[in-house]
Specification:
Elements lengths: L7 E3 L41 E3 L2 H13 L10 H5 L13 H16 L12 H16 L7 H7 L4 H12 L3 H19 L4 H7 L5 H12 L3 H7 L4
Antiparallel strand pairs: 1-2
Helix pairs in contact: 1-3, 5-6, 7-8, 7-10
Length: 235
């Protein structure tokens, strides 16, 4: 839980339950953006991020510039729960001019860069990083089924032990822990944006046991899937 402070930027990953409680009035910029890359991988899959950073003087100007060049892209609601329960990706910049799209993307990247924590481990060479990119993509597109360590190591063209070490060096997690975290993220999305049953969600997220799904969900999120859905507005 964060206590919002004046002059700070906050990053809330998608489908993370959030809400505001404020005794006094509050004025803020609220920016909603997609973080999926062209290869189907989410930016959070590759880097470590902070959730709270001090805003720079230029950041205020960047937000003002975003509003100036995108007058029709304003979010209509101040309650974040509204955006947790709907798909807003249809509100895109396809009708904007090329120059506006380019400048908007540049501003978004500049603001997002504030939250990046450190760099990729420089001891991992570019060839290994490229191979692991294929691994990340394979995981993202095959969450619905069992993913074996052997097949990931084969994609990375190395032994299982060597692959596990390199993977943890980059992500900070062992492959199985990383896969479970991605499955839980998928479950969070389905819990809040669909009315599918817990059984359907656990299967779609790639868990072969609903009991195991519930246990991992509570360990990583701190609540059961049912509690999470209720807090998100769906029963």
């Amino acid at each position: 839980m964060h206590q919002l402070k004046p002059g700070y930027l906050y990053l809330v990953p998608s489908y993370t339950l959030c809400g505001y409680h404020c005794v006094d009035s509050i004025s803020q910029y609220y920016l909603h953006f997609s973080h999926q890359l062209s290869d189907g991988i989410k930016i959070f899959d590759r880097i470590s991020i902070k959730s709270e950073v001090k805003a720079l003087d230029i950041d205020y100007l960047l937000f003002e510039r975003l509003l100036e060049i995108n007058p029709d892209m304003a979010l209509k609601y101040s309650d974040p729960n509204v955006y947790e329960q709907r798909n807003w990706t249809t509100n895109n910049m396809s009708t904007s001019s090329n120059s506006v799209q380019l400048e908007t993307i540049g501003i978004l990247k500049q603001l997002f860069s504030r939250f990046i924590e450190g760099k990729l481990n420089e001891k991992v060479n570019l060839k290994t990083q490229y191979k692991l990119t294929n691994v990340f993509q394979h995981i993202a597109t095959h969450l619905y089924r069992e993913i074996k360590l052997e097949e990931l190591a084969e994609i990375a063209c190395c032994s299982k032990d060597h692959f596990s070490r390199q993977f943890k060096r980059i992500t900070g997690m062992l492959p199985n822990d990383y896969i479970n975290s991605k499955r839980i993220e998928r479950a969070q999305e389905l819990l809040i944006t669909t009315s599918k049953t817990q059984k359907q969600i656990s299967e779609e997220a790639g868990f072969n046991s609903q009991q195991y799904y519930t246990r991992i969900f509570k360990r990583l999120i701190g609540t059961t899937p049912a509690e999470y859905r209720k807090m998100g507005g769906l029963i």
